[in-house]
């Protein structure tokens, strides 16, 4: 089957069946690949295009207008600096998430997650290590508006277990044009997908 056909959605699926289908298709796409950039790129594309093809969201007023990842900046290649520059910047870098693979309009490049300075839905999901489901982003304290058309949002943390300790390494973020665009069924499906993505990659 061509890779692009992974985003085709059978007719007649209810929402739990839709998320099971997407999870299954993503597991096939990720099989045999451990690079996190490659896997997150395919994951964001599959999610985005599957949601466009699913009638409950589609391309109209309930469209999911952004789907992608933010990752802990430590996962990205470090810039090539002189020894002096490294010494000057080493202690000044705040904890932050950087924009990773996504589908949708251009987005915020970084999100501050340093203690006392973190704000927004992605920062809260990352710092609290739990999914944040927002029915009205304009009513959410500290919301960062990357796209003014977004009305609701769901963010799932990417949780990696290292030496028996669970830590957040990033988030999976989805935006919707409609108020109350996501519910607990979406949250459950996305949390399974977030775990699949984490387990499928070498970090």
Distance between the termini: 29 Å
- SS content category: alpha+beta
The helix content, as a percent range, equals 25-40%
CATH classification class:
Alpha Beta
CATH topology description: Beta-Lactamase
Low-confidence stretches: none
Query: What is the CATH-assigned architecture?
Result: 2-Layer Sandwich
Helices and strands, in N-to-C order?
Answer: HHEHEEHEEEH
Q: Radius of gyration over alpha carbons?
A: 17 Å
Number of domains: 1
Mean pLDDT: 93
Characterization of this structure:
This is GAF domain nucleotide-binding protein. One of its GO terms (molecular function) is L-methionine-(R)-S-oxide reductase activity. By secondary structure, the chain is α+β, with helices and mostly antiparallel strands. The chain has a single domain (3-76, 93-200), classed as Beta-Lactamase, CATH 3.30.450. Helix content is 32%, strand content 23%. The chain is built from five helices and six strands; from the N terminus they run ααβαββαβββα. The chain has helices at residues 15-30, 36-53, 83-89, 121-128, 184-199; strands at residues 64-72, 96-104, 110-112, 132-134, 152-162, 165-176. A six-stranded antiparallel β-sheet has the order 3-2-1-6-5-4, sandwiched between helices. β2 (96-104) and β3 form a beta hairpin. α1 packs antiparallel against α2 (36-53) and α1 runs parallel beside α5 (184-199). The longest helix is centred in the first third of the chain and has 18 residues, at 36-53. The chain is globular and about 50 Å long. The protein starts with 14 loop residues before the first helix and ends with a helix. The model has no long low-confidence stretch (mean pLDDT 93).
């Amino acid at each position: 089957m061509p890779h692009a056909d992974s985003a085709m959605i059978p007719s007649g699926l209810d929402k739990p069946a839709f998320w099971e289908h997407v999870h299954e298709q993503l597991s096939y796409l990720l099989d045999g690949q451990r690079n996190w950039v490659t896997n997150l790129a395919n994951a964001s594309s599959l999610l985005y295009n599957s949601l466009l093809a699913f009638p409950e969201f589609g391309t109209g007023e309930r469209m999911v207008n952004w789907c992608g990842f933010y990752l802990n900046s430590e996962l990205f290649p470090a810039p090539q600096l002189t020894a002096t520059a490294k010494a000057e910047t080493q202690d000044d870098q705040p904890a932050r998430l950087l924009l990773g693979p996504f589908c949708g309009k251009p987005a915020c490049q970084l999100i501050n997650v340093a203690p006392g300075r973190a704000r927004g839905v992605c920062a809260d999901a990352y710092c609290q290590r739990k999914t944040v489901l927002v029915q009205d982003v304009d009513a959410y304290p500290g919301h960062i508006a990357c796209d003014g058309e977004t009305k609701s949002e769901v963010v799932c943390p990417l949780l990696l277990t290292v030496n028996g300790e669970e830590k957040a390494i990033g988030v999976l973020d989805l935006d919707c044009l409609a108020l109350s665009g996501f519910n607990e069924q979406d949250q459950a499906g996305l949390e399974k997908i977030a775990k699949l993505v984490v387990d499928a990659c070498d970090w």
